[in-house]
Design a protein that fits this description.
alpha+beta, GMP Synthetase, Chain A, domain 3, 4 domains, 5-stranded mixed beta barrel, 13 helices, 12 strands, about 35% helix, about 15% strand
Length: about 400
């Protein structure tokens, strides 16, 4: 009787094991087909370069690791089991409830530097745990969960329209074990989505979490190509969004055209912040541009300036940009000082002097041709072709 009980328990354990691997088992004779999960460095959103990888290893260097989930969502986790982890490894981590699946995006000393930059000092108890490296069953379920995200997003949009909610669901992210789904939405006003959560829970049979994001964060999650031809900055490295105003464009003497200044998020481009400090510093020593310049012939009014060349452009007509004259900043300062004393300058600038000192940009490719790397054609090709034709005609006459 005792042997029969042990045999029954073994059969029960085997059936449980078969049930866990049910999703990976095909028909008899078929091999298990794993999805393509190869890690491609540099092709991920908010990717980071490990510039400290050549430093010698230290104790507990992988105690805290950074893990990337879908799009721009990242988090720091504690490696409690001292696993040998490398960048790109797929791991199962603690979640609430259940577990989630993600990729290792940062390890070693770089994690500590990242925590210092973010000004975060988490205690070990606050960080969630890394359970293990993902098993084939975990990866298969993770891939199935990712395939559900797009249909779920489209269906949830229709449900929100039916409930007449003033919101836009921009992205859906399933947890790795398919027990929870995060809905990212945009809304200008506060939205009461309690009824929406009930309907979504009944529709998809998972736990629902709603997260509100801004237009810039949505553009970073979706990704795309900017007007400069490069991938969006919010998808590659920007994590903290600084407010951008039209004042930044005015400092850089840019045209206040909303179509040119707006990005894919319909907000002002984040790159307007990149060089604004340089322009502000350069204009600190510039004379005031609102003061017109008085000469013996006329009065010159400011029209525009070239900051890094140190040139103001003036015109005699305040409401027209015709017949503009370029005046160096130093000359503008001299004329304004003369006008304060009641003296009018004879002319804005000496045209002979400006002709001598004018900086003409050099064409670096003037001696180069677009076809300089093309293979050279063979010599006397035309003459050989002509001789062949001549011999052919002679032979034809001879045969006749």
């Amino acid at each position: 009787m005792h042997l029969f009980t042990i045999f029954a328990l073994l059969i029960q354990k085997r059936s449980i094991f078969m049930a866990e691997n049910d999703e990976l088992q095909g028909q008899a004779g078929e091999e298990i087909r794993m999805p393509n999960i190869k890690y491609k460095p540099g092709c991920n959103k908010l990717d980071s370069f490990n510039w400290l990888k050549d430093l010698p290893d230290t104790l507990n260097e992988n105690e805290i690791v950074e893990i990337r989930f879908k799009n721009t969502r990242k988090g720091f986790f504690r490696n409690v089991n001292n696993l040998r982890l490398e960048i790109g490894d797929i791991v199962a981590v603690e979640a609430s409830p259940g577990h989630d699946i993600g990729r290792i995006s940062m390890i070693g000393n770089l994690v500590r530097e990242q925590l210092k930059e973010l000004k975060v000092c988490p205690s070990p108890d606050d960080l969630k745990k890394v359970y293990r490296k993902a098993k084939p069953v975990d990866i298969q379920k993770w891939e199935e969960a990712k395939m559900l995200e797009t249909p779920t997003m489209l269906r949830s949009r229709k449900i929100s329209e039916e409930l007449k909610l003033n919101m836009k669901i921009g992205d859906v992210e399933y947890q790795g074990d398919k027990t929870k789904a995060i809905f990212y939405y945009i809304a200008d006003e506060r939205v009461d989505f309690r009824q929406l959560i009930k309907v979504l829970a009944e529709e998809f049979k998972v736990r629902i979490e709603m997260r509100q994001i801004g237009a810039r964060q949505e553009a970073g999650r979706i990704g795309g190509i900017g007007s400069c031809g490069r991938e969006l900055c919010c998808s590659t490295y920007i994590t903290n969004f600084i407010s951008v105003t039209t004042t930044h464009a005015k400092y850089q003497e840019l045209s206040l055209n909303p179509q040119k200044l707006a990005g894919q998020c319909s907000k002002l481009k984040c790159c307007l912040n990149f060089e604004v400090d340089c322009y502000v510093d350069a204009q600190k020593a510039f004379p005031p541009k609102e003061v017109p310049l008085e000469t013996t012939d006329s009065i010159a009014y400011f029209q525009k300036m070239e900051v890094h060349k140190g040139v103001y452009w003036y015109s005699t007509d305040q409401h027209s940009t015709a017949n503009q004259i370029a005046v160096p900043v130093q000359r503008v300062r001299e004329i304004q000082a003369m006008n304060k004393k009641g003296i009018k300058a004879e002319r804005l600038i000496d045209f002979e002097e400006i002709g001598e000192n004018e900086n003409v940009s050099e064409d670096l490719l003037k001696n180069n041709s677009l076809t300089r790397f093309d293979p050279a054609p063979p010599k006397n090709q035309h003459h050989k072709h002509f001789r062949k034709k001549k011999h052919r005609r002679f032979n034809d006459k001879k045969n006749k």
